[in-house]
Amino acid sequence: MQTIDEMIQNVNENNVDQINWTVAWSKKYPVLAAYQLEVDIPKYSNQIRKLLEALKQEYHYNELDAMLVLKDILYHEWKDSKKMVKNGVKK
After folding, report:
1. What is the pLDDT along the chain (91 residues), one digit of tens a residue?
2. What is the CB neighbour count within 10 angstroms for residue 65?
3. Cβ-count burial of 48 within 10 angstroms (0-12 exposed, 13-18 middle, 19+ buried)?
4. Where in the sequence is the domain holding 78, given as residue range(s)?
5. What's the angle, vertex CA 26, arms to CA 72 and CA 74, rounded to 5?
6. In terms of CB atoms within 10 Å, which end of the chain has fewer, N or C?
């Protein structure tokens, strides 16, 4: 965990923008390299854009903060869903 913390501290906007995160993460999660050919991306993009815009308007977040908040909410929903499945609870 210390290594991860150190890596996060060394990240800045310049080197973050140079990384293709889809390619990087697809090495661990192959679905990231393939979904573009299977998923109706505009359908989901439209809904995501609406959520981002709502966060920006309601909470006066900038684009980056709105994305980070939405990503964190999605992560917590996924994590909670995993817990519920593990415990045999239906949502």
Report:
1. 788 788 778 888 777 788 888 998 999 999 999 999 999 999 999 999 999 999 999 999 999 999 999 999 999 999 998 877 777 776 5
2. 13
3. middle
4. 40-91
5. 15
6. N
Looking at the fold, whether 46 and 88 belong to one and the same domain comes out as: yes
Residues 77 and 50 placed together within one structural domain of the fold: yes
Q: Are residues 89 and 52 in the same domain?
A: yes
Question: Within this chain, do residues 54 and 12 fall inside the same structural domain, yes or no?
Answer: no
Strand, coil or helix: 20? coil
Q: How many domains does the chain have?
A: 2
Q: In this structure, are residues 90 and 68 in contact, taking their beta carbons and an 8 Å threshold?
A: no
Q: How far, in Å, CA of 33 to CA of 26, rounded?
A: 5
pTM comes to: 0.73
The verdict on residue 34 lying in a domain is no
H/E stretch holding 47: helix 41-59
